[in-house]
Amino acid sequence: MADGDTELEARLVEQEEFEPSEEFVAQANVSDPAVYDEFEENWPDCWERAAEMLDWDEAYDEVLDDSNPPFYKWFTGGKLNVSYNCVDRHVENGDKNRVAIKWEGEHGETRTYTYQDLYREVNEFAAALRDLGVEEDDVVTLYMPMIPELPIAMLACARIGAPHSVVFGGFSADALATRMNSADSRFLVTCDGYYRRGDPLDHLDKANEGLDGVDHGVDATVVVDRLGDDGFGHDLKGNQHDWDDLLDEHAGERIDPVERDAEDMLFLMYTSGTTGQPKGVKHTTGGYLAYAAWTSHAVLDIEKEDTYWCSADIGWITGHSYIVYGPMALGTTTVMYEGTPDFPNRDRLWDIIEKYAVDIFYTAPTAIRAFMKWGSRFPEQHDLSSLRLLGTVGEPINPRAWKWYYKHIGNEDCPVVDTWWQTETGGMMITTLPGVKKMKPGSAGPPLPGIDAQIVDTSGKRVDAGRAGYLTVNKPWPGMLRTLYNNDERFIQEYWQEYSDVDSNDPDDWVYFPEDGAKIDADDYITILGRVDDVINVSGHRLGTMEIESAIVGVEGVAEAAVVGGNHEVKGEAVYAYVITEEGQDEDDEMRQRIIEGVEDAIGPIARPEMVVFTPELPKTRSGKIMRRLLEEIANGEELGDTTTLRNPEVVESIQRQVEGE
Ligand code: ATP
Ligand code: MG
């Protein structure tokens, strides 16, 4: 630990299981262990419990239509509107003055939207979109940073039945163009710029460059004026409209929420592309919202009286399901912030938690590792006692980071939910129900009620407790992706082919394959080992990249490491290590040697890195994951695949130069 080595800390290091407090359990939304059996015995009708959390315009006929696997349909015949469920019904039910969004900008400015405020702006913007020619089923692209206009635009799209495709604001012009082309999207909502570490960034310039790469006509672009006087003086082009002008023009207008079929598309989300060409994941209206609402209730334990904060970006699925749709379906207060955790200071997040008395906090291991590196003195400057529950998502969290989070943020008083899920799953799949289950740091937990996840070997047979294998999901669930946009074939190929009998029409023969390795223990707790392709085969030995990285990070002076396999004439593959050192550490042969020895000591000579490359940064996705595919391509001197989904594309060239210079 960075600081504060106490007896307590020593005890935590040893402890492998943690129980939620009685106080937490007593107030938890779900605390009856029978929920697991109830879901299993009553499957698939158990999912009515999720559907009942929504208001339907027309009741559904069937919970699940599995007549054409893997093209499952949920709540068929049902009709509903997502913006009605996330906004109108709270206004109608006496909660119009409850705060929906608490927004905190980089310079400390704040904006507060009650559900009534949200209702007004969502309606006005929906009216504006209609007026600009957006029709039901037209895909609207939203290329925006973390400003309130982003969720407002999402809800306005949902109101008129226009699916949105949110492109992470940090992505390049190219990434925007590729996605607009892929989705045939003729409408764009963006902004002039935003602040990052104190400086205004020119976003519209990037958006315009992206628009130049769109190979069909673009009917209209809406531009939010975020920067005001700090702006870059852009003139809007002929088909570009100012957000505020549009709202003024449509002030007070009301748009009836369009009745959408449960299976109509709500949004497209292109996955981050850690492993290759972005995939247009299609999510629908009924199943997705029911699943986001149910998991927000059962796992995040959200109640409408809470102040809830997920510090992710809305440009990532986590922000869709657990900043916008899940929390707002429950009518709670959701916090949004612009910027980064270390600007203006490294206590930014703790400052926000204290200021708004946040009850529930959900973040990613990449952030927790940074907090740990900075040290516990930053959270210690703040009163975090309002917190009741903590969550993490995005990567495996190592026990040391889990315990740091549990102790220094949660004061050993808040359950931690380590939630495994994917863009494709729509919502959480494997994690503890915090009011029911004990926690085991490092393990996500058992599959949620109604989720049939198993760990199998290459032939699809279940592996024994303690053995590693491949994670599969053997039954459909309401939040699942329905297909890849315009590409049913790739949908089957990417996710089903591996373990399914693709010629069968029997749903029992269809198995979803998330492409993650995992192991399971005697209590059914699943530990995710990482992506299947993050395995290096050295002379026939299969080595997990995570294990080698752990060994390297254990060497004094190392801050972070990424390991990939590079082609090797003799060994098949060899270990390439990319290392970020701590400030003040010399990057010399002595350091290289210590790293190599560290790996040999921890794992064995077989894992000995062939090459150690020092780098100031690693290529990362919007969710903070290392893009190992790129590092592998660099190691092999191959042409680089898609780099448009990096949040820091400039590091690639500098790493390339170093490897070539070695
Ligand atoms: P792409 O699919 O485009 O390569 P991606 O997989 O990084 O990108 P996401 O859908 O955001 O895009 O991430 C899902 C993946 O993240 C999971 O398949 C898993 O590998 C990892 N993951 C998410 N949550 C956890 C968790 N709690 N524990 C371990 N791994 C996790
Ligand atoms: Mg993935």
UniProtKB/TrEMBL annotation:
Keywords: ATP-binding, Ligase, Nucleotide-binding. The keyword Cell division does not apply. NCBIfam families: Ac_CoA_lig_AcsA, PRK00174.1. One of its GO terms (biological process) is acetyl-CoA biosynthetic process from acetate. Residues 34-86 form the Acetyl-coenzyme A synthetase N-terminal domain. GO terms for molecular function: 3-hydroxypropionyl-CoA synthetase activity; acetate-CoA ligase activity; AMP binding; ATP binding. It is an enzyme of class 6 (ligase). Belongs to the ATP-dependent AMP-binding enzyme family. This is Acetate--CoA ligase.
